[in-house]
Design brief:
The protein is mainly alpha-helical. It folds into 2 domains: about 60 residues, Winged helix-like DNA-binding domain superfamily/Winged helix DNA-binding domain (Arc Repressor Mutant, subunit A); about 160 residues, Up-down Bundle (Four Helix Bundle (Hemerythrin (Met), subunit A)). The protein is about 65% helix and about 5% strand. The chain is built from 10 helices and 2 strands; from the N terminus they run αααββααααααα. Strand 1 and strand 2 form a beta hairpin.
């Protein structure tokens, strides 16, 4: 039987605090392997947070392999296996970390784009194009388009039809949301950056639509490399004023292009 949790401290990243508390209890065997986790409503009351916060925390622990959902039964503690991939939060909030995260994405996104070019359907192409239009509309309305950018890359991943690649990217997105916000905020400050990103997105989409895996792979890799260059070219004032603040939640949410 698991023990009641104490309300967490008010402040930022509530879901991260809840996830850490749950993880600590699971490591201590409370709840034990195979035992059912308390309901969202109960956990929300114990932690003193909303059910949305609890849901985000539970989702994070699922991605780490600590919890699993059983349809119609609830959420249970998984049996111990290999140690889940994890990142040190203390290293995340830095300019260099943003660049390193994009480096991780470069290989993955290139392969995803190539597979999408091989396996895409007409509806996949339509969805990718719709995501591009939504991104353009968001930018035209004065936004940074971060969420729309995530949706664009997810549409390409879905077209690749490789559940392992999709799961890997989904896992990384919780650490890369800050990267998305940084790169989009930086690019929104310069019209030439905005045009570059639009052209790069179009190059990837066109190669996928044309069924050209090699071209799609090169376009996606170039897109990530160019994203790194744009961060390196960022005005120092941007990083001092906005970049560090935007990068700070790298490990608390879910990527950018």
């Amino acid at each position: 039987m698991s023990i009641p949790f104490q309300a967490i401290r008010p402040g930022a990243h509530l879901s991260e605090q809840v996830a850490q508390a749950l993880s600590a209890q699971i490591s201590a065997g409370q709840p034990a392997t195979g035992e059912k986790l308390a309901t969202e409503a109960v956990l929300a009351q114990q932690f003193g947070v909303s059910r949305t916060v609890v849901r985000e925390a539970v989702s994070r622990l699922k991605s780490l392999g600590l919890l699993e959902s059983r349809q119609g039964s609830g959420v249970f503690v998984r049996a111990a296996g290999f140690s889940p991939l994890s990142f040190d939060a203390s290293l995340a909030a830095s300019r260099q970390a943003v660049i390193q995260m994009v480096e991780v994405r470069r290989g993955l996104e290139a392969e995803v784009a190539a597979l999408a070019a091989e396996r895409r359907s007409a509806s996949d192409v339509q969805r990718i194009r719709q995501c591009m239009s939504a991104l353009a509309d968001a930018v035209a309305a004065g936004g940074d388009g971060a969420e729309e950018d995530v949706n664009y890359h997810r549409a390409i991943a879905d077209a690749a039809r490789n559940p392992f690649l999709i799961s890997t990217l989904d896992y990384l997105r919780q650490f890369l949301r800050g990267v998305t916000r940084v790169t989009r905020a930086n690019e929104a400050r310069r019209a030439d950056f905005v045009r570059q990103v639009q052209n790069e997105h179009e190059a990837i989409a066109s190669a996928i639509e044309a069924g050209e895996p090699g071209t799609a792979r090169r376009a996606a890799a170039a897109h990530m490399s160019n994203a790194i260059e744009r961060i390196e070219q960022a005005d120092p004032a941007f990083w001092e004023q906005e970049g560090l603040q935007l990068a700070s939640p790298l490990v608390s949410g879910a990527a950018r292009g």
